[in-house]
Amino acid sequence: MSDFTLYPAIDVRGGRVVRLRQGDYAQETRYADDPLSVAQRYARAGARWLHLVDLDAARVGGYTLAPLLSAIKSATSLQVQTGGGVRSEADVQSILDAGADRVVVGSLAVREPARVKEWLRWFGSARLTVALDARQSADGRWQLPTAGWTEDSGVELEALLSDYMAAGLQHLLCTDITRDGMLSGPNIALYRRIVDVAPQVQLQASGGVRDVGDVLAARQAGCAGAVLGKALLDGRFDLSNAFAEVA
């Protein structure tokens, strides 16, 4: 895939850049106090896109990062996909109005797919990224937790993905929750499976990326992009070099 996008990620909780292990709010690593400065650093390294997450809102609703989003858009040329706590059409509109290029919808996309499919038609599929973040059960099924990955929805990945494909889904972000923040490598087998089922969807790999090799493996698997989180914050690889390798 020639047009492969790297999405450096900034997860914000309590106004600070943090990372969670496997989505567990009790296992938080704190990084910079100033998310804007991190975004500017990624922009200087050559990033075109930023993945911005409101972790506080992901659990309780009420997106809080509009001022930060506006500041990032004013201070950089980054395109931003962002979400956390999106519960209504008004939430989507307000995030777009604050400058988002794409709004990420996660828990609601699992709990109320009929509403989100209507949003794909209303706002346009190019303006929404549906996040179907999965955890594999003991019997091998890929299930979709909600509420910041803290609640079991009872919904399975492939069944819901099929519904969204029929509704014109364009951008899908999928995280293997067990690998998120673990630096254990992305789940390439899962991504190959999704690409086989939904080849027309622009799939973003997320969770476990350690180095440029993992990025290239995701591209080889058919992904359209990869979200880079803990490995960047820990300084495990250079973002500028990653862009050169992908190019």
TrEMBL record:
Its EC number is 5.3.1.16. Pathway: Amino-acid biosynthesis; L-histidine biosynthesis; L-histidine from 5-phospho-alpha-D-ribose 1-diphosphate: step 4/9. The active site is at 11 (proton acceptor), 133 (proton donor). One of its GO terms (molecular function) is 1-(5-phosphoribosyl)-5-[(5-phosphoribosylamino)methylideneamino]imidazole-4-carboxamide isomerase activity. One of its GO terms (cellular component) is cytoplasm. It catalyses: 1-(5-phospho-beta-D-ribosyl)-5-[(5-phospho-beta-D-ribosylamino)methylideneamino]imidazole-4-carboxamide = 5-[(5-phospho-1-deoxy-D-ribulos-1-ylimino)methylamino]-1-(5-phospho-beta-D-ribosyl)imidazole-4-carboxamide. Keywords: Amino-acid biosynthesis, Cytoplasm, Histidine biosynthesis, Isomerase. SUPFAM superfamilies: Ribulose-phoshate binding barrel. It is found in: Cytoplasm. InterPro entries: Aldolase_TIM, His_biosynth, HisA/PriA, HisA_bact_arch, Isoase_HisA-like, RibuloseP-bd_barrel. GO terms for biological process: L-histidine biosynthetic process; L-tryptophan biosynthetic process. Its main location: cytoplasm. Belongs to the HisA/HisF family. NCBIfam families: 1-(5-phosphoribosyl)-5-[(5-phosphoribosylamino)methylideneamino]imidazole-4-carboxamide isomerase (TIGR00007). This is 1-(5-phosphoribosyl)-5-[(5-phosphoribosylamino)methylideneamino] imidazole-4-carboxamide isomerase. It comes from Lysobacter daejeonensis GH1-9.
